[in-house]
Amino acid sequence: MSSCGFLNMATIGDFDPLNATIPATKVEITVSFCVLYTQGIGSKEWREFGRTEVIDNTLNPDFVRKFILDYFFEERQNLKFDLYDVDSKSTNLSKHDFLGQIFCTLGEVVGSLGGRMEKSLGGIPGKKCGTIIVKAEELSNCRESVMMQFCGNKLDKKDFFGKSDPFLVFYRSNEDGTFTICHKTEVVKNNLNPVWQAFKMPVRALCNGDYDRTIKVEVYDWDRDGGHDFIGEFSTSYRELSRGQSQFNVYEVINPKKKGKKKKYLNSGTVTLLSFLADIEVTFLDYIKGGNPNGQQMPPTSLHYMNPYQLNAYAMALKAVGEIIQDYDSDKMFPALGFGAKLPPDGRISHEFALNGNPQNPYCNGIDGVMEAYYQSLKSVTLYGPTNFSPVINHVARYAASIKDGSQYFILLIITDGVISDMAQTKESIVNAACLPMSIIIVGVGPAEFDAMIELDGDEVRISSRGRNAERDIVQFVPFRDYIDRTGNHILSMARLAKDVLAEIPDQFLSYMKTRGIKPSPTPPPYTPPGHPLQTQI
């Protein structure tokens, strides 16, 4: 993973193929005089990630060293902070006085208002250990993008029967002196004075966030057989390019072999920067920091049509997804609904009933509360078809339709065995909901074929109803059986499921906000806390 121009102070153990994905972003964690531990996905083992520097003789240290972590919305990233009073120069922690600790997730920190979380320290029975403040800040140069356009002038003629067909290849330089390709322009046919189309790319891809790092550009003449002829090359940097169109950004294209052979060789033409426009990409965290999750409610609404033999799969799917989403909800109160059952006392069939038995207030306290309501409902209701999805989709859509200013975003979690009795109505409901601030996650449990769920997912063919296509893709379907660990490691199964099922949520969220021109709320002003016996302020 690139460090976006900031130095990583530690790495996390061995390579983990499950983590080898592009992170949603990078965040910078600031803590005080402590040791940070992380856990690998599906592992309970704590591994030391890094330590702050030591500040002498103060109960309110303000530390400079930061921890650079990759942030994945779709993963539960557990963190542990241990604080010590440093008594010697030993690196052995047992040689120092333990002051307290906290456990949290990176999602909790990011999901806190302004990316600032304050927690009481624990770990020493019967003793008040003070508080710790943890802040998360997105590394800004991770999300800069740049749009550039170039033209060529008097490039060397390479083709026998015609002019050259030139294109550009951009390389960023690596720390070890090697180069990595990062962009190719299109080919402009039969033209020694080409104007290439403008292109946009992330700054981190161009120079790894280092504005002075060398960027090498090679110019080639395209050949049909793939043996493209080298015309020449030039070097620049992001800082030079950022000057925009000027005499500084007209580059001589040099062919080293020609230069070595011909005394009168000047160049093989020139390449000129026509335009340069830098931009900051609005990211998921901008909305989170501005207070979105605190009004967001993101309700993992649990829909269950199940038999007793599938209990574990339902519970695991609910817990895996719900425990991550709840970090982004301020009050942790979730409405949990069931469908496809006969309800007591009169046995009426319902496709939209409160799992906790209270239709006036279907909210449950946290995912544990949803789990408890789920278990209790199994004892009181009789599972019964038909299985209709549309009523509960419409239920959540009614909430979403009433709040379209971007202050809240709803996530509907459906756990199902794949049976659906109202396919046409469900498609209509999804098409209608696609223009609302909501996403739908469907987890299929059990051995059934899930053809209908795959159709609702719309990844291959965008879902439509009565000639109308869904405005955007809001449904993500996964079959739970694809994530079950063969060794019986349920923690790993749940982590794999959550990773895939939640990966699309930030992009779905951003697509709604951007198409409606909704900007992130401003980050709240810095909070000045009252004095504490032990205060870790950044």
Concise structural overview:
Residues 515-538 are annotated as: Disordered. The chain has 538 residues and is of the alpha+beta class.
What does this molecule look like?
Helix 9 (390-402) runs parallel beside helix 10. It is globular, with a radius of gyration of 28 Å. The longest helix is centred in the middle third of the chain and has 15 residues, at 311-325. It is 22% helix and 29% strand. It has 13 helices and 28 strands. A 4-stranded antiparallel β-sheet has the order 4-1-8-7. A 4-stranded antiparallel β-sheet has the order 3-2-5-6. Strands 12-9-16-15 form a 4-stranded antiparallel β-sheet. By secondary structure, it is α+β, with helices and mostly antiparallel strands. Strand 19 (341-343) and strand 20 (348-350) form a beta hairpin.
- Biggest sheet layout: 4 strands, antiparallel
Mean pLDDT: 79
User: Could you tell me the number of beta strands?
Assistant: 28
Structural class: alpha+beta
Unreliable runs, pLDDT <50, ≥5 residues? 1-22, 292-311, 527-538
Give helix % range. Answer: 10-25%
Describe the protein's topology.
Blueprint (H helix, E strand, L loop, with lengths): L24 E6 L3 E6 L6 E6 L14 E6 L6 E8 L11 E9 H6 L4 E5 L10 E8 L5 E10 L12 E8 L5 E6 L14 E4 H5 L6 E8 L7 E9 H4 L8 E3 L3 H6 L8 E11 L3 H6 L2 H5 L14 H15 L7 E3 L1 E2 L2 E3 L4 E3 L2 E2 L8 E3 H15 L1 E2 L6 H13 L7 E7 L6 H11 L4 E7 L6 H7 L6 E2 L2 E2 L5 E5 L10 H13 L2 H11 L23
Parallel strand pairs: 24-25, 25-28
Antiparallel strand pairs: 1-4, 1-8, 2-3, 2-5, 5-6, 7-8, 9-12, 9-16, 10-11, 10-13, 13-14, 15-16, 17-22, 18-21, 19-20, 19-23, 26-27
Helix pairs in contact: 7-12, 9-10
